[in-house]
Amino acid sequence: LTWKAREYEYHTRFIELAGEINDQMPYFVVDKVTRALNQKQKALNGAKILILGVAYKKDIDDVRESPILRVMELLRDANAAVSYHDPFVHVIEPHGGSTVRVESVPLTKELLAAVDCTVIGTGHSCFDYDMIATYSPVIVDT
Predict the structure, then answer these.
(1) CATH number belonging to domain 25-141
(2) Which of 8, 44, 111, 139 has the most CB atoms less than 10 A away?
């Protein structure tokens, strides 16, 4: 969009700023997770993190351009054990620089209770939010 606007000599600073903000959001989410864990005297290093929803938007199976994929990479880079559940996305194939193929795990009360933090990446309509709130020790909603 910005390249087209420049053709007509329009200023695109707000579009560029929006892009910069969007590019920083995965780091913001990881910081939120880190702070939430710290409040429970837990470190991100070694933490078990469950991501709920990895699709680009709710109730679809498209992961292209999904910012939560970058969040997952950053969490793994920090040595967190990351798993995900998404009823629409059963497998995340290797993408970008990643060579990792990841499969969705079943969402159970036991899983929610076993992880250190549940991150709501994409708020699918079918999620049982009462169960998530009841059994998750820490929840970060992106």
Answers:
(1) 3.40.50.720
(2) 44
Q: Residue 52: beta bridge partners?
A: 85, 120
**Cα distance between residue 139 and residue 113, in whole Å:** 11
Cα dist from 3 to 10, 79, 86, whole Å: 10, 38, 35
Distance CA(43)–CA(12), nearest Å, equals: 41
> Cα(138)–Cα(129) distance, rounded to whole angstroms?
13
- Nearest CA-CA partner of 36 in 102, 124, 115, 127: 115
Angle between helices 13-39 and 67-77 (to 10 degrees): 40
Q: In sequence order, what DSSP letters do the residues of the chain get, joined into one string?
A: -HHHHHHTT---HHHHHHHHHHHHHHHHHHHHHHHHHHHTT--STT-EEEEE--SSSTT----TT-HHHHHHHHHHHTT-EEEEE-SS--EE---TT----EEPPP--HHHHHHSSEEEESS--TTS-HHHHHHH-SSEEE-
Cβ(39)–Cβ(113) below 8 Å: no
